[in-house]
Amino acid sequence: MRISTNTIYQLSTSQMSALQEKISTISQQASTGKKVMTPQDDPVGSAKLLEAKQAISMNSQYADNRNALKYTIGIANVALDGVQDVMQSMNEQIISLGNATLSSSNRQSIAITIKSQLDHLVSLSNTKDAAGHYIFSGYKSDIASIDATTYAYGGDANNAVIQVDSSTQLGLGVNANTLFSAGFLAQVKTSIDVLSNAASTDAQIATAITDLSTKFSASQITVNASQVTLGTSENRLTSMDSIGSERALAYKDAVSSLEDVDYNKVLSDLARQQLQLQVAQKTFTQISNLSIFNYIK
């Protein structure tokens, strides 16, 4: 079968155009260090690259969430350390109330001290984060955890959680309602009122002290349990950070293997394509000078 000179001309120009396009692509790879990958060129590779980059983004978001929660836990730990200090001092005052030789004025003086400690506990219960959210109010973080007048819990029983890993949601796990055993703060106020009242009978005073001591002991247990909860959450987050860092490296390697070029191969391919183009151009020039092409012209 004879091939027309016009067909030879078209084939030559098509070959040179394809070579020039390849050289342009390889040159871009050499200058950027990245493969020129489009869904049309490499559907499978492009899909894998997109998946890996999305995994990196999500892994980074989880790390940010963990840092945010660790920050809140840090604030909570400081608050609970303060609660422990105040309760230790309060316990000393409660023990001193058991002294049968105390006068009415002595008990009233102790009651004033305990009231000051109660106010401090309320303040610590209403600890806020940098954004002004009450950290011990559960989901109702815009409402004070403890009402300074009624000593009632203002939040809810739910634990505000955030996604800290692909399969894990975690929150502070502590609210002011569980921080103190039921009714402890209100009981402190009730006992203070009895102790401060000069008209209170010995029986009323004894009951007030007993109730206060009982509620105090139960509340100490819940405060200790809350600190354990925070410590456990902190340890889990630290463990997840380690796993997250390993995943980040793995995802980065995956992206690199899909996206980064092999410079030795790219430079070798570039040289080979440029040589092929030179040969094609020389051949085209020779063919163009044939008499048949001159005749066509």
Report the span from N to C terminus: 24 Å
The CATH homologous superfamily of the largest domain corresponds to f41 fragment of flagellin, N-terminal domain
**Annotation field: number of helices:** 8
Structural class: mainly alpha
Quick one: CATH class of the largest domain?
A: Mainly Alpha
Number of domains: 2
Beta fraction: under 5%
pLDDT < 50 runs, ≥5 residues: none
Task: Bin the helical content.
Answer: over 70%
The largest pleated sheet is described as: 2 strands, antiparallel
What spatial form do the alpha-carbon principal axes imply?
Answer: rod-shaped
Write the CATH architecture name of the largest domain. Up-down Bundle
Which whole number gives the mean pLDDT? Answer: 86
Instruction: Please count the beta strands (DSSP E, at least 2 residues each).
Output: 2
Order of helices and strands: HHHEEHHHHH
Kindly report the CATH topology of the largest domain. f41 fragment of flagellin, N-terminal domain
Query: What is the gyration radius calculated from CA atoms?
Result: 38 Å
- Largest beta sheet: what is the strand line-up? 1-2
